[in-house]
Write a structure and sequence with these properties.
Blueprint (H helix, E strand, L loop, with lengths): L14 E2 L2 E2 L1 E6 H4 L4 H12 L7 E7 L8 E7 L4 H15 L4 E7 L2 E7 L6 E7 L2 E7 L2 H10 L36
Antiparallel strand pairs: 1-2, 3-4, 4-5, 5-9, 6-7, 7-8, 8-9
Length: 185
């Protein structure tokens, strides 16, 4: 399960700009519902011989809403994180057909940016340690700082590691208003 005791799959450290972050984790059984995103992810899991319970999700966020940042982690044992990321993006495109997806460099790393449109936050997706990370914010500089702050547990011993802080937040939709649905971010 994604959570604080699983170093390679936990959300980024729980502080960013001195903001205390909260974190939560679930399986797909808890978060997948009847909305289009959930149905698309459930269909993908089923096609891979998995169930909703095989999807592990964690999020960190500022419970006060002061920090414009949310970060999630997603994984399913036996499914390549790159495949899961691609399916997550396709699932968002079901809900948001005008979603603009592009590749951008942030913190020296290629990430996939999801632009959900005017008035919405952006998602920045990337894979590390066989986990899909989804950093959500309307502030590109904050997204880059968060991406840089996520520890790279796959780096060889003695390699420079990033340090700092970042936070994920629970968000069920990409709307900047903070409204929540049953879909993971």
């Amino acid at each position: 399960m994604v959570g604080p005791t699983t170093p390679s799959s936990r959300p980024p450290r729980k502080d960013c700009d001195s903001a205390a972050l909260s974190s939560q984790s679930w399986t797909g059984t808890t978060i997948l519902a009847e909305d289009a995103w959930s149905v698309a992810i459930t269909t993908f899991l089923t096609s891979a011989g998995k169930t909703a319970a095989d999807l592990q999700v964690g999020q960190a966020y500022d419970p006060t809403g002061t920090l414009d940042l949310s970060a999630g982690v997603f994984r399913a044992d036996g499914i390549a994180a790159s495949d899961l990321q691609a399916q997550m993006i396709k699932a968002w495109q079901v809900d948001y057909p005008d979603l603009k997806v592009s590749e951008v460099t942030m913190g020296g790393r290629m990430v996939t940016k999801g632009d959900f449109g005017a008035g919405a936050i952006h998602s920045y997706w990337f894979v590390r340690d066989d986990v899909v990370f989804d950093v959500q914010t309307s502030d590109e500089k904050l997204a880059e700082a968060a991406i840089l702050a996520i520890p790279d547990h796959s780096a060889p011993a003695g390699s420079p590691r990033t340090s700092g802080s970042a936070a994920p937040a629970p968000s069920g939709s990409p709307a900047a208003s903070g409204s929540s649905t049953s879909s993971p971010s």
